[in-house]
Amino acid sequence: MTDFTAWHGKSFAEHVALRDAAAATGYRFLSLSLYGAVGSPVYAAVMIKRATVVAQRDWPLMTSAEWQQTFNDQAKLGYGPVMIAATGLAADPRFAAVFQPMNPIPLTRGGLRSGDPADAGTIQGMNAVARKQGLMLHWAASYGDPADPRYAAIWVPVTDHSLWNADGVADTAAQYQARFNAQTSAWCRPSFVTLDAGSRYLSVFTDRETGPWIARHDMTPAGYQTEFDAHKQAGFYPVCVQAAGTSAANARFTALWVKTEAVTPRVFTPTGPVTNAAIDAIILAAMQASPVKHAGLAITHGTRLVYARGYTFAEADWPIAQPTTRFRMASVSKTVTAIAIRQLIDAGQLQLGDKLQDKLQLKTPGGGAPADGRFGSITIQHLLEHKSGVKTNNFIAGDLVQSAFAAAGHSITLPVTAEQTDAYVASLPLDTTPGATAVYNNCGYYLLARVVAKLRGTATPVAAFQQTIFAPLGIQHIGRAGNLVTAQPPGEARYQSATLALATSDMTNDRPLVPSEYGDEQLSIADGSGGLSGSPVDQARLIAALLVGKDTAMLKAASVMAMLDAGAAVNATGTRAGYGFDAITKLAGGGYRAQKGGSLQTSNNVLSFDGQWGLVMAWASPPSAADAAWYPYYDTVMAIAKSAAWGPGDLFATSYGMAPL
Question: How many other C-beta atoms lie within 10 A of the C-beta of residue 538?
Fold first, then answer.
């Protein structure tokens, strides 16, 4: 049982007496809160006895000037603040703080306002500064009044690549609950929470696990005591107890309890039918240097799958990624759409010069013709080559679609449909004249996918992809990406953004907070542009079908060559390739070097091939801090693959039930 002592509602004299008695027997501060009027301060504290007793120095009551002088003096002696508390108005606050030996002295600021993240005089601005310096918000004090809220805070180094978010600065109790619900739904927990006399909450969330935990807020003193007693009986102890109010009687409390403060270790677990220690070591190093917890890799040689791995570097309660785990493909979805368009050309149902509007017959939300007269001149080729001129990203903003219908006198509810999205796209002005300028365009490939669905007579593009691409190739693990956390496809990886950002949902009219890319963008509408998810194995099957050099159930060899040649010709002009790829080069000795990348705030994916070698690499968090060479051909991995003795086997057939191509 953890040995700790705690109190709340105590006067200055009572607090000092309790502190002195506990400190004399080896207890040290774990949490400290200062509240009440500046003339009659009130304290809540937790002190803990550990096997190793650290040196602590604390000052229970200081003016602003005294707090600054104390910080300066202690920093010179190698002592930094680990806790800070405050009460009172911005013009005359009182501070309490705890110091202990620290190297380096943590970044510490006081008197911060709430406001622009670009302003270092705000708590948001200092959070941005700290993040750039590899620091995270550790402890904070919230004081002042609604007209002039102020903050003092401490930031410490992030040594384990864990993620954090402190966007909740002045939440009401209800807003904090909504933030709590969204963050915890995406495998995060609160690491610090405080409040001011107006019951506005400042919170810090992290993906760093420490075992079982409990959080409560908006408690009366009696309510806090009841929770304290119950959780203590269950083996929990409080690591953060914060209170605010003008007196001990009217205070409100927030608190966090744990059974242990020890950080749960992340464990590396590779899975797959074949092992190559050198390749796995590169992936491990990349994951250790980043927040990525799920990753996947597949390597092909010719038509054979020679390597397939799922990688997990996470706590024990995370699911284990398999080679068939689905990862959001993002813009790699465009490769599938380009193939589907080429199939329609081969079938005689479509030509590159055909007009988009002739196929879709789009109308605006008001029922009229497209708002921009140039819309009718957009061709299939313009869309494939990113030269359509349509606005690139607005189509997945459900709130904008809803507003456009409202402006036309029609009320629609979220989530919007693809048909409503089509009408919204038709209502927008073009950015450029079709054919004039190449600008990478997500909406263009959305429209291409809508053409595929229309001409194939399917309700969705992905249904058409299933009929003409996935089923003929034996692909079983590519489909529509899910929207909400609660609506993910079976076997999907878990996603977290680099800042654990939240956004408002596009899935219901009340628009609650959701984790980034778990409902704030309607990925299920964007399947042909960036809304597919697929396993590395199944994405690699697409590479094999493109490299086979003979007719397949997907495409004729001549059609593959025509598609890749067209992309290479565009690429040769110095612009992004198009035709489902970012870059295509025809090799002098035959074959192609090509790649398509896909990037979301919460994941990265790449499909590439170089001659007869193919690669799919998927990360379920942006790997910006991982292996800088992972994109687009992952040369460090492929150099090993090209020198390995794989033998004649084909994992497509022997491990994943796909017939040889």
Answer: 25
pLDDT tens figures, 373-397: 999 999 999 999 999 999 999 888 9
Identify how many contiguous H helices and E strands the chain contains and give both numbers: 18, 27
Number of domains in the chain: 2
Task: Determine, yes or no, domain membership for 260.
Answer: no
CA angle 484, 319, 631 (to 5 degrees): 80
> What are the E-state strand segments in 178-236?
189-195, 201-206, 213-219
Structural domain includes residue 170: no
pLDDT at 139 over 70: yes
Count CA atoms closer than 13 A to 297's CA, side-chain side. Answer: 29
Q: How far apart are CA 180 and CA 238, in angstroms?
A: 18
Specify whether 456 is located in the same domain as 387: yes
Predicted local distance difference test score (pLDDT) of residue 195: 98
Q: Could you tell me if 143 and 290 lie in one domain?
A: no
Q: Which residues contact 125 (CB under 8 A, 6 or more apart)?
A: 112, 115, 116, 117, 118, 119
Q: Before 157, cis peptide (omega within 30)?
A: no
Is residue 277 domain-shared with residue 238, that is, in the same domain? no
Is 417 within a domain?
yes
pTM here?
A: 0.96
Local confidence band at 628 (pLDDT 50, 70, 90 cut-offs) = low
**Residue 165 dihedral angles phi and psi, to the nearest 5°:** -145, 135
- Domain hosting 441: range is 271-654
Residue 629: band (very low, low, confident or very high) from pLDDT cuts 50, 70, 90? confident
Same domain, 534 and 592: yes
Q: Residue 176 falls within a domain, yes or no?
A: no
Q: Which residues have CB under 8 Å from 399's CB, separation 6+?
A: 414, 504, 506, 511
Q: What is the pLDDT of residues 502-561, one digit of tens each?
A: 999 999 999 999 999 999 999 989 989 999 999 999 999 999 999 999 999 999 999 999
Determine which helix (DSSP H) or strand (DSSP E) holds 123, and give its type and residue range: helix 123-132
